[in-house]
Design goal:
Layout (H helix, E strand, L loop, with lengths): L9 H14 L1 H10 L7 E5 L5 H9 L3 E6 L2 H8 L5 E5 L12 E6 L9 H10 L1 E13 L5 E3 L3 H14 L6 H12 L2 E7 L13 H11 L5 H16 L4 E3 L2 E7 L2
Parallel strand pairs: 1-2, 1-4, 2-3, 4-5
Antiparallel strand pairs: 5-9, 6-8, 7-9
Helix pairs in contact: 1-8, 5-7
Length: 255
């Protein structure tokens, strides 16, 4: 996989985002149940992107869903999925939505990318009714990442550095509870997604290696990336590969 194959289009990103929704399936169900939501409740996703999390939520629950995202191209892609949810273009720091419009609001791998996470959470609180819920389903913490065996630890370090250079706060996960406290939520719950390897030979999905190549294209040659990919595939096949990225979630009630 070289040259143009390293470029990810919206189809590639959507497949990757769908894979991420598989990782958060159980916590999504647990936290939406904790929120006491019922079919027909209005629920907002901030940073809805290509509509991956909205699609999964629509399949699993009977909510009246709305997605908000700053990127028009992603919203157009999401609309073309023909799913039953509303879409609005807007910046999470200043949502173009009325106070108390929703029973709950959630985000999914969003806060590490925003300039002011507390402001975004405060906006999610504003547009959610009193006693409603705001949920951050997944925020990774690359500072706690574990890659084994060597030299895959170098690959993990390089990818973390690349994300940092792109503007991500790579240790957002550990700050998540603090962000919810600062935003003024009540009844806050914070945790880390569980991890287990029932079959360590499963390997990474193709979308993950496309993302790794896209992230590391500025710092590694095609030949170097291919070597890392071969080592990674071999480690999975041998049942030796460990890749653990602590991913936090948080839940809070609107006062």
């Amino acid at each position: 996989m070289t040259g143009n194959a390293m470029q990810m289009d919206l189809e590639d990103w959507h497949r990757r985002y769908l894979e991420q929704t598989n990782w958060t399936r159980e916590i999504r169900r647990a936290l939406f149940n904790k929120a006491g939501l019922n079919a027909g409740d209005r629920v907002l996703e901030v940073g809805s992107g290509t509509g991956a999390a909205l699609t999964r939520t629509a399949e699993e629950f009977g909510f009246q869903l709305t997605g908000a995202d700053i990127e028009f191209q992603s919203l157009t892609f999401s609309k073309d999925l023909n799913r039953v949810f509303d879409l609005v273009q807007g910046n999470g720091h200043h949502l173009p939505l009325a106070d108390g419009s929703f029973s709950a609001a959630f985000c999914h791998y969003l806060l590490l990318w925003v300039t002011d996470p507390v402001r975004v959470l405060s906006e999610m609180m504003r547009v959610t009714r009193p006693a409603g819920s705001v949920i951050a389903l997944a925020e990774p913490d690359y500072g706690g990442r574990i890659d084994y065996p060597p030299p895959l630890d170098d690959l993990g370090r390089l990818q973390s550095q690349a994300l940092d250079s792109q503007g991500a706060d790579i240790v957002t996960g550990r700050k998540l509870g603090d962000f919810f406290q600062q935003a003024g939520f009540e009844g806050i719950t914070v945790g880390i997604l569980g991890a287990q390897w029932e079959d360590a030979r499963q390997g990474l999905p193709d979308t993950e290696w496309k993302a790794i190549r896209a992230d590391l294209k500025p710092v590694l040659s095609d030949r170097e990336l291919t070597k890392y990919e071969e080592i990674d595939h071999a480690a999975w096949a041998e049942g030796r590969r460990i890749l653990y990225l602590p991913t936090f979630y948080a839940f809070g009630r609107v006062p």
